[in-house]
Design goal:
Elements: H1 2-22, H2 30-61, H3 67-73, H4 80-107, H5 115-148
Helix pairs in contact: 1-2, 1-5, 2-3, 2-4, 3-4, 4-5
Length: about 150
């Protein structure tokens, strides 16, 4: 769900809002920003937590020893691939909560912000979301690659 919403935001919603804003005779993007975006961002935020916690659980207990999580995050032998995936997932989680959500609250008017603050927030949220979009493929490859091998 997390990655699906990430792709939805980057491939569908952001370009659609740009088109809606540019269309001076159209309905604009108010419906999306008022009804769709807050709900989608709620699921996006909490899906990121659920994904990370599930991954941590599998690292702690899926390898037969709780030491696996430490080995993965320290990129120790035998855990490098999953460790890289875990680090990428952690960076993405921090982007969601520390940059994307914090700035989306300003953009959507959930917290007070000046027009200048909203403009800056749009850039920060967009760049953080694009970074997550780019990191998602290597993260998924590393997660699957630990047990199935990488294709390269």
């Amino acid at each position: 769900m997390w990655i699906g919403l990430l792709y939805y935001f980057n491939v569908v919603q952001v370009p659609a809002l740009g088109d809606a804003t540019a269309d001076k005779g159209g309905p604009g993007g108010a419906g999306i920003t008022k009804y769709v975006a807050p709900r989608a961002l709620w699921w996006f935020r909490w899906a990121s937590v659920a994904t990370w916690v599930t991954g941590a659980y599998f690292l702690l207990f899926g390898y037969g020893t709780p030491v696996a999580m430490h080995k993965a995050f320290m990129l120790q032998e035998g855990f490098v691939t999953i460790g890289v995936g875990a680090w990428l997932g952690t960076i993405m989680l921090l982007n969601v909560w520390g940059l994307i959500w914090r700035n989306q609250k300003k953009i959507l008017g959930l917290v007070p912000a000046t027009d200048e603050e909203k403009a800056k927030a749009r850039k920060v949220a967009l760049y953080a979301s694009r970074v997550n979009f780019i990191l998602s493929v290597p993260m998924l490859m590393c997660m699957g690659g630990q047990s199935h091998g990488l294709p390269f």
